Amino acid sequence: MAQGTVQVTHTGTSRWRRRTGEYASLAAALEAAADGDVLTVAPGTYRENLVLQRAVTLRGPENSPGSVRIAPVDGVPLTVRASAVVQDLHVEGQDAAAPAVLVEEGTPELRDLRVVTRSAAGIEVRGSARPTVRRCAVDNPAGIGIAVLDGAGGVFEECEVVAAGQAGVAVRGGAHPRLERCRIHHTSGSGLSATGENSALEAVGCEIYEVRGSGVQITGRATAHLTDCDVHRTTADGVTLDTDAVLTLADCRIHDIPENAVDLRSRSVLTLTRTSVRQFGRNGLSVWDPGTRVDANQCEIFDSTGDYPAVWVSDGATAVLDSCRVHDVPDALFVLDRGSRADVVDSDLSQVRNTAVSVSDGATAQLDDCRIRDAATGAWFRDHGSGGTLANCTVDGTQTGVIVTKGADPTVERCTIDSPAEAGVYVSAGGRGSFLNCRVTGSGGYGFHVIDGSRTTLRKCRTERCARGGYEFADSGADPASGTGPLVEDCTSDESGGLRAPAAPATAVQTVSHSPGVLGAVPGQRTETEPPVPVAEPERSARTSKDVLGELDALVGLESVKREVRALTDMIEVGRRRQQAGLKAASVKRHLVFTGSPGTGKTTVARLYGEILASLGVLEKGHLVEVSRVDLVGEHIGSTAIRTQEAFEKARGGVLFIDEAYALSPEDAGRDFGKEAIDTLVKLMEDHRDAVVVIVAGYTAEMERFLSVNPGVASRFSRTITFSDYGPEDLLRIVEQQAEEHEYRLAAGAAEALGKYFTVLPKGPAFGNGRTARQTFEAMVERHASRVAQLPEPSKDDLTLLYAEDLPELL
To answer: Which of 29, 277, 342, 533 is disulfide-compatible with 301, CB 3.0–4.6 A?
Structure first.
């Protein structure tokens, strides 16, 4: 064993009292040293476990980096418990259960250390320690590179994690370090990770790359702030936020990401400013779940390498884009699911291969002062409940400017649609929509094309230079007197095509627009002698339990779920009949626990269950009220009980569906107000046992924990119903149903290719089951559209057949 001597320079209160001594071991030198002394270590290998408990300086010889090795056979090689200075040492750890460098107290300074180890952590900082770590390198292929734990802090400047078997930098337990100009790469876990309440991470001018996982992962109520940082070349998402995480990205660059560039879930909040997102394989921004929100200002999202929307907002999440640019992507913005919302202001969406803005499944999008250019479809409002507003926007160079279908009802006002290859506005399949002060110019087809008796409103609109005509209304046999068809007021045209009004019966009275220009006769207000027929949504007749069970049986898969619901329904029905016969009926607890992964139909089954109970007379209405933690838990004492009571009252007579119910009882609950929500809910369930049915839902393992730690809640539920993941055959059936509903067909070989696709599709945390099948179908439709759009005169088969080649590529 090579070992040199340690020279200790002892300092006194005056210069003449300074003296120097030499010691054969580091332990002896440390024992002799006092605060302020300098220990200069001669080159060699020292098999000692060093513990610095005084404010000394421990350093290797000048101009000889790496010549001093601290390498004990086990334990922690270097422990710092004082405001010492340590520099120019090579530290090697051999103990898999211990860190190589442990900083426990004080404000020490570590400079120019090289830590090479295969241990739990390269550098670990904990407790009250606040070190300054400069120009240190950590190579730990077995564990964490740098761990900051249990309330510790510190500043890391120009440090490098050259390899880590887990996270490059991990922050937990309320720790709050700051990283400046650091590099973290070649990690087998996340590059930067922060988790737990009060944990905070700040990084400035850092680079995270070559990461086998997420580049940055913030979870469990932790917060982080990254400025002027680069995240690139990861194998998973670039940035991941989950469970009330809060992250700010300013002047950052996220690129070369095979999955989502940024993925947010479970009430996380992200703020991006002057940040660029490019070269991503899935979504640039992926935003999920109620309470989850992203605010992007002056950001750029572009150059997608996959076939997915650049911005994806679903499951009740919110996204705000202000002064942003989204370009060179398959689709720019998809907003779907009830409660989801996107607000886009003064932004550019351009070079979009398919749809710039898609709104579906009851979602809302608000675009103000935006510019959409060079897209197949400018904005598509797809189905009932979907809507929003386009105001003061320009849509230029699209195939179709705005599409409204299947009961969607947006408001489009003061917008200009220029040079669409086909229609400027196309409304079909019962779409609605209000178009106010809009203009369509240079259309290759019609300006406004409204078919199927769609109840669209056009006011003060104008068309110019439309090749096939300014306005085309085709009712497909609908009778205008029935209240179907468009409502047109004060619209004008330059006469290039004229207006083709829907045929009206002889008794109908029509008026002519008073605005300048020739528009022909348009449907106007009826005379007082013939009052207008009110337009009302048809009332939905109450269905029997048999009818509702039939709809349940029609759902793909879920065989065990169907058996459970049917058995429960039979019990309730027989009990009701026994009561009518004057017999005792068994008490049936109607509250349920639904467990399983997202996208397995839990919400749909809950809705049908409520309707079944209403048909049996068990519930008054049977409606569904869906809530999550953010709807029940307040920010201060007392507000939680009020929120929970309000949610319960909304559900009175129906079903209260609590998604991710386990979030009400987190493992590190502490003073969390979720317990107040649980206590309030249990009391309400007892006091109003016949008024509301409560269903709690979530991942299987988390719900088992939730019920085990809350016996009061567990006792209120009759049974747990497990929703298994869909198999490849079920996912294929969902796609086939989607195709039939949208009037597409699977060509020969496509079904087999879909089955293989779903078999090999990765089933990771982001896998959405039924939603994944729907996304796959939508991706096939978009690829089909890109292919068929190139055909000069496509046949009916060309327009309806989906081939195996339309499948999205597996990444």
So the answer is: 277
Tell me the average pLDDT across 271-293.
96
Tell me the CB-side half-sphere exposure of residue 220, using CA atoms within 13 A.
Answer: 16
Q: Are 452 and 433 in contact (CB under 8 A)?
A: no
Contact at 8 Å (CB) between 81 and 55?
no
For residue 809, which phi and psi values (nearest 5 degrees)?
Answer: -75, 145
**What are the C-alpha distances in Å from 48 to residues 24, 131, 180, 193?**
12, 22, 32, 32
Beta bridge partner(s), residue 201: 224
| 8 A C-beta contact, residue 695 and residue 594 | yes
pTM above 0.85, yes or no: no
788 CB neighbour count, 10 Å cutoff: 15
Which residues, 6 or more positions from 4, have their beta carbon under 8 angstroms from its beta carbon? 41, 42, 43, 44
Q: What are the distances in angstroms from CA 776 to CA 56, 201, 235, 236, 747?
A: 63, 37, 22, 20, 16
In tens, the pLDDT along 330-370 reads: 999 999 999 999 999 999 999 999 999 999 999 999 999 99
Nearest to 372 by CA among 392, 343, 386: 392
What DSSP string describes 479-512?
-GGGT-S-EEES-EE-SSS-EEPPP--TT---EE
3-state secondary structure 507-532: CCCCEECCCCCCCCEECCCCCCCCCC
Q: Which of 172, 273, 193 is nearest to 227 (CA)?
A: 273
545-722: CATH architecture: 3-Layer(aba) Sandwich (3.40)
Which residues are CB-neighbours of 793 under 8 A, at least 6 positions away?
A: none
Give yes or no on whether 260-376 and 728-806 have one common fold.
no
Ordered DSSP codes for 139-207: EETTSEEEEE-TT---EEES-EEEEESS-SEEEETT---EEES-EEEEESS-SEEEESTT-EEEEES-E
Strands 309-314 vs 331-336: parallel, antiparallel or unpaired: parallel
Which of 2.160.20, 2.60.40, 2.40.128, 3.30.70 is the CATH number of 260-376? 2.160.20
- Token readout for 83 is 């405001």
Cβ–Cβ < 8 Å for 34, 52: no
| More confident of the two residues 501 and 57 | 57
Average model confidence (pLDDT) across the chain: 85
8 A C-beta contact, residue 433 and residue 381: yes
For domain 1-166, the CATH class is mainly beta
Token pair 């002799």 in the structure block, residue: 32
φ and ψ at residue 796, rounded to 5 degrees: -65, -40
DSSP reduced 3-state for 762: coil
Write down the domain spans for the chain.
1-166, 260-376, 395-477+484-493, 545-722, 728-806
Whether 3 shows a pLDDT value over 80: the answer reads no
Tokens of 702: 């988390």
Residues 6+ apart with CB under 8 A from 655: 606, 607, 609, 610, 613, 619, 622, 623, 624, 625, 692, 693, 694, 695
**Do you know the residue count of the chain?**
811
Q: 728-806 maps to which CATH number?
A: 1.10.8.60
Q: Find out whether 269 and 293 touch, Cβ atoms under 8 Å.
A: yes
